[in-house]
Amino acid sequence: MARHSERTVIFLIGAVQFVNILDFMMVMPLGPFFAGPLGIPGSRIGVIGGSYTAAAAVSGIACSFFLDRFDRRKALALAMAGLVVATALGGFSVGLGTMLCARVLAGAFGGPATSLSLSIVADIIPPERRGKALGAVMGSFAVAAVLGVPAGLELARWGGWRVPFFSTAALGLAMVPLAIWFLPPLTRHLVIGKIRPAGAGFLSLLSKRSVRLSAVATIAVMSSAFLVVPVITPYLVFNMHFPSRDLKWIYMMGGALSFVVLRVIGSMVDRFGSTRLAAVGTGIFCFVAWFAFVKYDPRLPLTGLFVLFMVGMNFRMAPYQTLISKVPAPDERAGFMSLMGAFQHFSTSSGAMLSSVVLSTGSDGELVGMPRLGLLAMSMAALVPPLFFLVERQVRRTVPVPALPMPA
After folding, report:
1. Would you say 54 and 107 are in contact if contact means Cβ atoms under 8 Å apart?
2. Cβ contact 131:83 at 8 Å
C-alpha cells in the first residue's frame, strides 16, 4: 500500500478516535455542572464514570466472540453510530438513572470502537512502521485533552451542561460517516479465518501463552497508572495547596507535550523495540511517583513534575499498543484487542478502587497515605519492562504475519 494511503487511514482513524475519546474524557470534568440540575450527589459522580468502564469491559469480553466475523469498516460504523446516539442521550438525561443508562450504552459501543480502530491500523500498517502509526493515532487522546475537554467546559459555562453532550454527538454525526466512507472495505481477515478453525472467544484466546502474558502486562500498565490518576487533582489541591484555577494548565501543557512525545516515541519504538522504550517510560513514571507522592522535594516545581508524569504515562502507552498489536493473527485481531480493552477497563477500575482503600481523608481534606500509594504504584510499574520483554520474546518466536494489503 502506498505511504500516502497509509497516512490517510491513520488520519481517518485518528478522527474517529478523537470523537470516541472526547466522549469518554469530558464526562467527569462536567460532573459539577450536571450534578446539581439533575439532583445527583457529588459522591455519585464517580459511579457515572465507572459505569462507562464497566460496560466497556463487559462489552469487550462479549465482542471477543464475534468482532472478527465482520468487515471491520462496517463494524466500526455500527459501533460509532451507537456511541453517537448514547452521547446524545446523555444530553437528554433527567436524573442519575437516565445518565447511568446513557453512559453504560456509551461504554458498550465505545469500547469495541477503540478495539476496531486499533485493529484496522494493525491490519494495514506493517510491523516495522506500526509504532509510528499507533503513536499518531494515540495523539487523539492528547488532542482531546488539550482542545476537546476545555472546549466542552467552556460550552457548559456558556450554554449549560447539555450543550457539550449535544455538540460531541453532532461532531460525531458530521465527522464519523465521512471517515467511514473514505475507509476501504476491510475483509481480508475473513479469508484467513475461513481456513483456520473457529475459536471460542476469550477462552480460546486465553489458552495462548502470548495472550496471557499480554493480559498481565495490560494489568501492570493500567493499574499502576490508575492507582494515582484519580487522586491527582485532590492531592494537588488539598495536600500541596496548588491553586485550583491553575489546574487546567497542567492538563493542557501535559496534553500538548504528550501529543508531540507520542509521535516521536512511535518512531523510536519501530527502531528500538517496545521493551526499551517502556523501561524509559517506567523510569520517568517512578521518578515522578517518588518525588511527588513518596518524598516530595519542594525545590521541584509541581507543574513541571505533573506534566512529566503525564509524559511518562504516554511514554509507556505507545510501546504497549505497538507490542500487543503484534500478538494476534489477523483473523483474531479485533477479538484480541477487544479482550485487551476489557482488561484495560477492569484494571483502571480496580486501580481506582484500590486507591480508595489505601487512602483516607484527613481533618482538612488532605489525602492520608499517599506515600504508601506511590510505592504501590511504583512496584506495579516496575513489572512492566520484564513483562514487555516476555511478550516481545513470545512474539519473536511466532511466525510473522504480514499486514493485510489495502484493497484496490
Report:
1. yes
2. no
The residue with cell 496534553 is: 255
Tell me, what's the pLDDT at 291? 92
What is the distance, to the nearest Å, from the Cα of residue 20 to the centroid of all Cα atoms in its chain? 10
DSSP-based three-state secondary structure for 360: strand
> Are the C-beta atoms of residues 132 and 267 closer than 8 Å to each other?
yes
- DSSP character at residue 366: P
Q: State the CB neighbour count (10 A cutoff) for residue 380.
A: 22
- Domains in the chain, ordered, with CATH? 1-185 (1.20.1250.20), 198-398 (1.20.1250.20)
Per-residue confidence (pLDDT) for residue 1, from 0 to 100: 44
d(C-alpha 184, C-alpha 174), whole Å: 19
**Computed from CA positions of residues 301, 302, 308, 312, in that sequence, does the dihedral angle turn out positive or negative?**
positive
Q: Above pLDDT 70, what percent of the chain?
A: 90
> How far apart, in whole angstroms, are the C-alpha atoms of residue 289 and residue 305?
9
Partnered with residue 361 across adjacent β-strands are 367
Reading the block at residue 37, the C-alpha cell is 440540575
Helical H runs in 183-246?
188-194, 202-206, 209-226, 232-234
d(CA 380, CA 241): 28
Contact criterion met (CB below 8 Å) for 280 and 261: no
